Amino acid sequence: MVSKGPVLRLLTAINRRRMKLLMGLAFVAYVASVWGNFVNMRSLQENGDQKVESKIEEAVAPLREKIKDLEKSFTQKYPPVKFLSEKDRKRILITGGAGFVGSHLTDKLMMDGHEVTVVDNFFTGRKRNVEHWIGHENFELINHDVVEPLYIEVDQIYHLASPASPPNYMYNPIKTLKTNTIGTLNMLGLAKRVGARLLLASTSEVYGDPEVHPQNEDYWGHVNPIGPRACYDEGKRVAETMCYAYMKQEGVEVRVARIFNTFGPRMHMNDGRVVSNFILQALQGEPLTVYGPGTQTRAFQYVSDLVNGLVALMNSNVSSPVNLGNPEEHTILEFAQLIKKLVGSGSEIQFLSEAQDDPQKRKPDIRKAKLLLGWEPVVPLEEGLNKAIHYFRKELEYQANNQYIPKPKPARMKKGRTRHN
Ligand SMILES: NC(=O)c1ccc[n+]([C@@H]2O[C@H](COP(=O)([O-])OP(=O)(O)OC[C@H]3O[C@@H](n4cnc5c(N)ncnc54)[C@H](O)[C@@H]3O)[C@@H](O)[C@H]2O)c1
């Protein structure tokens, strides 16, 4: 066995001490690094926690808003509704009730205390027009196409379902014809089954490009049966014929309102009609486009006047057609100038070539409505236009906030497209 020399023993003793020292230092370093890691992880975790929390907050904020909206809708205040006894309260169906005229009629009949069922396929109408009634115990909204039969129990039917403006009814002429013919037959069938009275929303277009002026209810009209407007004009004419066939043959009580141009809030922004065109153009600083020389005349009634006329006619004993319109006649150019002034717009007036089959004159003779219904329009043109301008301004703001406002599509001309008529 080899014995260790004194030098070796000394070195070993030093190394042992060093080793101990080194081990001690290593232990301290280890503890320090563990502590450091721990502290780092804590701060990382805290940072991470903060990030996660802010992400959660971001995701939850819109949900919170939604919950607030829902809470609001649960506690929604409806417009004031009259109380009617069971005897006076009617069950009323409005086809096309989510459209421009239909939604105002809904408002009136609801506020009068009736039970209203709106039936609409939302072709040109929208839920937003009647959303303030959704959930009310007297109100029902049904998504339904009148071209299909409908089975419900009602006392009165206001049959308004039909596209009403040229771009909308020309978009799909076959569908326009089906709605006005098959749709009207279905509603008359319903009226017959349940013993309801039906009011047809007919139109001054049944007079076509009139040869008599103003037009009274005895005038048979001057309609081009194969022109671009025929699907609507002839559709409404045959709808009237159907009403009187059901009245004579089946004893159904019918009312026929020949409605003249109407305007007001909730009318379609892009329906291509004079009032909406001019208001939109004036608000957007675009030229006001007049087709032809601007000497053709139009008479416009405010929507609340029309609604009062429809209700008066429905509840009257007048079964023959009645004109509902405002006889105050203006040239198209006068309308352009007035709207420009009311909007305070600097837009110029631009003259374009005349549209096909555009009637030269249109003015209702409303003596029958005055005499038999005691009805006449009361809202002055400027007052009505100001309300419509206010509505359009708001709608443009809505649009600017990226909300979708449907534009009418161009007319379908080609055969063989796969789309439901
Ligand atoms: N506004 C006017 O100046 C005017 C003038 C004359 C006649 N009218 C008549 O008054 C009625 C209402 O016109 P408006 O201006 O409110 O038009 P609108 O387009 O705003 O309303 C028509 C409603 O009918 C609905 N509809 C269309 N086809 C349907 C179908 N097959 N089934 C169910 N619903 C359908 C639409 O979605 C819309 O809600 C129409 O019958 C129209 O012919 C209106």
Automatic annotation (TrEMBL):
Coarsely, its chief localization is Golgi
Query: Any idea where the NAD(P)-binding domain is?
Result: 93-387
Determine the domain of life of the protein's source.
Eukaryota
Q: Which UniProt keywords apply?
A: Decarboxylase, Glycoprotein, Golgi apparatus, Lyase, Membrane, NAD, Signal-anchor, Transmembrane, Transmembrane helix
Output this protein's name: UDP-glucuronic acid decarboxylase 1
Query: Which segments constitute the UDP-glucuronate decarboxylase N-terminal domain?
Result: 7-79
E.C. no: 4.1.1.35
Instruction: List the pathway annotation.
Output: Nucleotide-sugar biosynthesis; UDP-alpha-D-xylose biosynthesis; UDP-alpha-D-xylose from UDP-alpha-D-glucuronate: step 1/1
What are the recorded Gene Ontology BP terms?
Answer: D-xylose metabolic process; UDP-D-xylose biosynthetic process
- Output a single Gene Ontology CC term carried by this record: Golgi cisterna membrane
Q: Where is this protein localized, as stated in its record?
A: Golgi apparatus, Golgi stack membrane
Identify the species of origin: Probosciger aterrimus
Q: Cite the source lineage.
A: Eukaryota, Metazoa, Chordata, Craniata, Vertebrata
Q: Does the keyword Ribosomal protein apply?
A: no
**Of which family is this protein a member?**
Belongs to the NAD(P)-dependent epimerase/dehydratase family. UDP-glucuronic acid decarboxylase subfamily.
What SUPFAM superfamilies does this protein's entry cite? Answer: NAD(P)-binding Rossmann-fold domains
What would be an example GO MF term here? Answer: UDP-glucuronate decarboxylase activity
Q: Which cofactor does it need?
A: NAD(+)
- Say if the entry is tagged with keyword Transmembrane: yes
Membrane-spanning intervals of the chain:
21-38
The topology of this chain with respect to the membrane is: Single-pass type II membrane protein
What does it catalyze?
A: UDP-alpha-D-glucuronate + H(+) = UDP-alpha-D-xylose + CO2
